[in-house]
Design brief:
By secondary structure, the chain is α/β, with parallel strands linked by helices. It folds into three domains: 174 residues, SPOUT methyltransferase, trefoil knot domain (Alpha/beta knot, 3-Layer(aba) Sandwich); 136 residues, Rossmann fold (3-Layer(aba) Sandwich), CATH 3.40.50.1000; 84 residues, Putative phosphatase, domain 2 (DNA polymerase, domain 1). Strand 1, helix 2 and strand 2 form a beta-alpha-beta unit. It is globular and about 80 Å long. The two termini are 45 Å apart. The relative contact order is 0.09.
């Protein structure tokens, strides 16, 4: 074995492949005291291919000649600067998640944390760590476990561990995506509500209509929006009970309006029944689709067999499809009522596969609820695509994840 210079070795390692899929990272440091640490961070950022390094604090407080000496040639390779700005979101480009490396009470182990693709790592002062007002602005906090007798890491060492762990995760994801992209799907199974049908937008309009029809302002309800804000969390809890078979469809329909009325001191079962009937009538007839729905269906229809799996009520979901123009795109519709079980029960996915004449290996489930659509499909043995427009953090594996429906075109 002969010695090989690092430049010669690393030209053989295609580490740049990760930047075909994810943006370059950024580094922020809170009031570092020593020129050696500042220079080491500049060199580290250059090693990893970061966009820039921001040092919070006053440039005049440092001997820049020592900083440049410690940074070596990296001082000319990467953009680094000092800033006295205290609002991190004025420093960090929009879209980058700020991840603090700190031993805070809400921190998670970096090795157990799925790091964001578009990331800005933040490190703290050598003595005091990251200031509390800055820590509150971070999107996520991670710690690096230290098993030895000295339980603190040098700031540049901590940044190195974090940046190369991020790189490791990104390389792993890119390889998985490459392998999965080679898989040929033939059948795509969509969830309906909040994946293709904009359930919340349609509900808002339906509430405005029933608010006006039943003169709810005269009963002390300030506005249709206010009524919907009270209704929404109560309805979500009732749907959880319904999915768990703890209440019936009739109990769901009555209680979801009775409880919100009672919030305003209105105890009227008959009115609750009328509101429920009108809501069930109007909500599927007010067509509101998630942006990109029709363009995506037009793109996918010639290439795949398209299907729907939904927990909604049969008459309501059929109305949505026929009125929105989506019906012609789907070959089968599987509704929980016909199966007798609801997502995430794996049985409904297996039932839908059989109904479609599809196999697990050639099928992909697309949905917006991690616990209902993605976990359920995975339990059934089906690949999954998590549509996550709010970019919520969630536990559990998923085959793919997108934040916009039209990103699906890049995968399929």
């Amino acid at each position: 074995m002969s010695y090989l210079k690092s430049n010669d070795l690393f030209t053989k390692i295609p580490t740049e492949e990760i930047y075909q899929h994810v943006p370059h990272p950024m580094v922020i440091a809170d009031h570092l005291m020593t020129p050696d640490n500042i220079g080491a961070l500049i060199r580290l950022a250059d090693n990893i291919g970061a966009t820039e390094v921001c040092f919070l604090g006053n440039e005049d407080d440092h001997r820049l000649s020592k900083v440049r000496r410690a940074a070596a040639s990296s001082r000319d390779n990467i953009h680094w600067f000092f800033s006295v700005e205290t609002d991190l979101h004025k420093i960090v480009p929009s879209g980058k998640a700020i991840v603090a490396i700190e031993t805070a009470d809400n921190a998670t182990c970096i090795y157990d944390t799925q790091l964001p693709e578009d990331i800005a790592f933040m490190v703290g002062n050598e003595r005091n760590g990251i200031a509390e007002d800055l820590l509150k602005q971070c999107d996520k906090v991670v710690y690096i476990p230290v098993p030895g007798p000295t339980r603190s890491l040098n700031v540049s060492h901590a940044a190195a561990v974090a940046l190369f762990e991020w790189q490791r995760q990104m390389l792993l994801r890119s390889k998985k995506t490459e392998v999965r992209s080679k898989k040929t799907y033939q059948h795509l199974f969509f969830d309906l509500d909040r994946t293709l049908w904009d359930f919340d937008a349609a509900a808002e309009v339906a509430f405005e209509r029933i608010y006006e029809k039943y003169h709810l302002k005269e009963l002390g309800i300030p506005s249709a929006h206010d009524f919907h804000e009270v209704y929404h969390p109560l309805n979500e809890k009732l749907w959880e009970l319904y999915r768990a078979d703890q209440i019936t469809k009739d109990e769901l329909n009555r209680t979801r309006f009775l409880k919100p009325l009672e919030h305003y001191g209105i105890h009227d079962v008959e009115l609750a029944d009328h509101l429920s009937e009108d809501y069930v009538y109007w909500s599927p007839r007010i067509v509101r689709l998630v942006p990109g729905t029709m363009e995506l269906l037009e793109y996918l229809k010639p290439k795949y067999h398209l299907h729907l799996i939904t927990n909604g009520f049969q008459e309501v979901q059929h109305t949505k499809l026929s009125g929105s123009g989506m019906e012609s795109y789907f070959e089968t519709l599987t509704v929980s009522e016909e199966v007798g079980v609801k997502k995430p029960n794996p049985e409904i996915f297996l039932y839908a596969l059989k109904k479609a004449g599809a196999t697990l290996e050639e099928s992909l489930m697309i949905g917006d609820e991690m616990a209902v659509d993605i976990d359920g499909a995975r339990a059934a043995g089906m690949d999954q695509l998590f549509f996550n427009p709010s970019k919520e953090e969630s536990e559990g594996a998923r085959t793919f994840e997108v934040y916009n429906l039209l990103e699906i075109k890049e995968i399929l």
